[in-house]
Task: inverse folding
């Protein structure tokens, strides 16, 4: 047992916890282009206090803590109104985008069980640009994911491909506003028409864009395509407060066009010897802190606060897009609609550029190739990045040159050929050899990630997934 016999002093506990953070990403530095959505010290302080006010309450029983119902209702109403849901729209507060998506997919499954009982092997159709959470929802809920193509130039869903994959077993269509990877909004209106024509539910994943795109839509100078409940055929939308709503983590919403549909989300049980249970979302004991934090930040920022932040994010994004395209070696993929973007290269292995940028104190995120897209690097522009966008652009030429001058160049095509040769000779046993080649062992990660990323990129998906599972299985106790 690794707890002390007698309790530690509070100061010592907090000091120890602070010391644990030494190796963590410095998200306030403005040099990390992923993972956190820090809204600045002032907003952060308000969120923290609101969160702590609700540290102990429990949303398990809405009749015992009616103030949690009020907080949830007001946050969901804020989002539903932004998404033009009208008076009939309803929704719930969840722990994150993944839960919101999981619930929307579960709702579609249970709606289909009731309305289309002849379907015994339900399928969900979405483009490859959809977030992995859709594959996860299908895996957890016993549904078959059916993956459609996207336009390799625009990175928008190929609606003809989606149409061609609809069968008698299809229960749900899904698209993104925007996709995480390239920040591109799918042709929601067209997919909405397809959903209506085929009598299917249609979920829009606006985890990233639900709040920001809704504000941009109403601001001068932005031409945001309709992606919300104003589009006929859209039946549910996920929109995260803990991304560009600026709430603390554990805060998302899932919104439905009607109460009749949302009913399929709710779980009730009176069969156990315990208390009668009824849960709208996945959690049973449900923390109040994330709701209070989300409520507080929306009140603290107000419309003007959000607009000001989003305008700055868009300016920084324009700086980055122009600067990246101006390098001559890198090009931005598709036309990002908000402040998420990705870039690739025909001249260097961008996974090596990621390592080079890391040596210079920047974090950008590797994304793998697909049959229709090259391997690339992702950037999510957040508030602390705003003053650093130009500095990043200024540093790019030197970082690119360093990759070109590197004596240990990793050619992605050579790695692909080597991986293929190993697979041909060793089959599934190649995994162990490849792990050794990449230098991966449990929590002991090498500093340079380019070779690992290049190998993962080259592997068949079932093998890269197996490798990643082994890594995580070794990482945790
Ligand atoms: C478009 C999109 N959908 C869903 C998710 C999953 O959200 P979460 O990480 O909050 O579960 C993300 C996360 O980045 C996302 O970008």
Result:
């Amino acid at each position: 047992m690794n707890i002390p016999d007698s309790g530690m002093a509070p100061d010592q506990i907090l000091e120890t916890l602070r010391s644990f953070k030494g190796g963590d990403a410095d998200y306030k530095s403005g040099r990390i282009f992923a993972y956190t959505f820090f809204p600045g010290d002032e907003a952060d302080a308000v969120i923290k206090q609101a969160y702590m006010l609700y540290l102990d309450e429990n949303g398990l029983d809405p009749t015992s803590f009616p103030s949690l119902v009020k907080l949830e209702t007001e946050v969901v109403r804020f989002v539903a109104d932004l998404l033009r849901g009208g008076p009939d729209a309803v929704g719930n507060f969840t722990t994150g985008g993944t839960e919101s998506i999981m619930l929307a997919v579960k709702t579609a499954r249970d709606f289909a069980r009731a309305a289309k009982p002849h379907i015994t092997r339900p399928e969900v159709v979405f483009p490859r640009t959809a977030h992995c959470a859709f594959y996860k929802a299908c895996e957890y809920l016993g549904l078959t994911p059916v993956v459609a193509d996207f336009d390799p130039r625009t990175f928008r869903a190929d609606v003809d491909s989606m149409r061609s994959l609809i069968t008698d077993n299809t229960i749900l269509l899904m698209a993104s506003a925007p996709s995480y990877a390239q920040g591109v909004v799918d042709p929601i209106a067209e997919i909405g028409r397809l959903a209506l024509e085929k009598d299917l539910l249609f979920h829009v994943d606006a985890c990233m864009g639900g709040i920001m795109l809704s504000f941009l839509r109403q601001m001068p100078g932005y031409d945001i395509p309709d992606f919300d409940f104003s589009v006929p055929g859209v039946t549910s939308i996920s929109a995260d407060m803990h991304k560009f709503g600026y709430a603390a983590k554990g805060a998302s919403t899932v919104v439905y066009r009607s109460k009749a549909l949302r009913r399929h989300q709710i779980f009730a049980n009176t069969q156990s010897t315990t208390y009668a249970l009824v849960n709208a979302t996945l959690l049973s004991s449900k923390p109040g802190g994330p709701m209070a934090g989300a409520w507080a930040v929306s009140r603290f920022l107000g419309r003007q606060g959000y607009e000001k932040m989003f305008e700055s994010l868009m300016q920084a994004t324009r700086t980055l897009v122009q600067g990246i395209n101006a390098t001559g070696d890198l090009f931005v993929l598709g036309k990002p609609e908000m402040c998420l973007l990705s870039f690739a290269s025909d001249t260097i292995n961008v996974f090596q550029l990621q390592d080079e940028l890391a040596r210079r104190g920047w974090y950008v995120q590797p994304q793998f190739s697909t049959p229709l897209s090259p391997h690339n690097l992702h950037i999510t522009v957040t508030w602390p990045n705003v003053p650093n966008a130009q500095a990043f652009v200024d540093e790019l030429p030197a970082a690119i040159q360093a990759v070109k001058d590197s004596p240990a160049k990793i050619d992605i095509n050579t790695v692909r050929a080597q991986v293929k040769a190993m697979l041909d000779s060793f089959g599934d046993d190649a995994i162990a050899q490849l792990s050794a080649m990449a230098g991966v062992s449990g929590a002991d990660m090498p500093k340079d990630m380019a070779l690992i990323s290049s190998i993962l990129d080259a592997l068949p998906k079932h093998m890269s997934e197996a490798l990643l599972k082994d890594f995580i299985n070794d990482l945790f106790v």
Notes: The chain has a mean pLDDT of 96. Residues 412-475 form one domain.
